[in-house]
Amino acid sequence: MTQHSSTLSHSVDAIIRPLTAQDDAAIAAVIREVSAEYGLTPDKGFSVADKTLDCLSEVYQAQGSQYWVIEYQGKVVGGAGVAALAENIGVCELQKMYFSRAIRGQGMAKKLTQQCIEFAKNQQYQSMYLETTAVLVEALALYEKLGFNHCQHLGETGHDACEIAMIMDL
Question: For residue 65, what are the CA distances in angstroms to 1, 23, 35, 38, 92?
Fold first, then answer.
């Protein structure tokens, strides 16, 4: 996989790189931290409740899947992944996109989403699907700006609290 380096506001490099097993605890902590910040509690059906949250590096070993983390000042501060959407041939899902406050507003979400889109195209997916919630205002605005359109929910993602479904043709 390719690594991308982007300069944040304090002339410090952030690196987007593939997730490793050594990153599992750190990205799980980021997802839990951001979820708590936005009130996305495990009892409500958000990804913070996923049983696989502590072993994402294993989950993203599947064919057509990849998860990337953002490393900033030596710490994992965000990430996002792509995986096939079950029972939907040619459709992948943008998954578990979370960012610590340290890197929000620096353009990293856009950069990482674009990397996910490129990966999906290279994997021959025809569409990218995602589920989100209205509480994540910044994410929703980004998805719309990048060309995702609102749609019906597809498949069983296990995130029944995510009331917004979006899709984009690749």
Answer: 12, 17, 23, 27, 9
Domain that holds residue 135: 4-169
For residues 88 and 68, the answer to whether their CB atoms sit within 8 Å is no
Buried b (16+ CB within 10 A) or exposed e, 131-155: bbbeebeebbebbeeeebeeeeebe
Q: What is the pLDDT of residues 3-26, one digit of tens each?
A: 444 434 443 488 999 999 999 999
142/49 Cα distance (integer angstroms): 24
Strands (E), 26-115: 66-72, 75-84, 91-99
pLDDT digits (tens, 9 = 90+) for 49-75: 678 889 999 999 999 999 999 999 999
Instruction: Find the CATH number of the domain harbouring 16.
Output: 3.40.630.30
List beta partners, residue 165.
Answer: 131, 151
- From the list 110, 82, 117, 106, the residue with the least C-alpha distance to 96 is 82
* CA 146 vs CA 30, 68, 143: distances in Å: 24, 19, 5
Find out whether 71 and 17 touch, Cβ atoms under 8 Å.
yes
Indicate the number of domains in the chain. Answer: 1
Token couple for 122: 């290279």
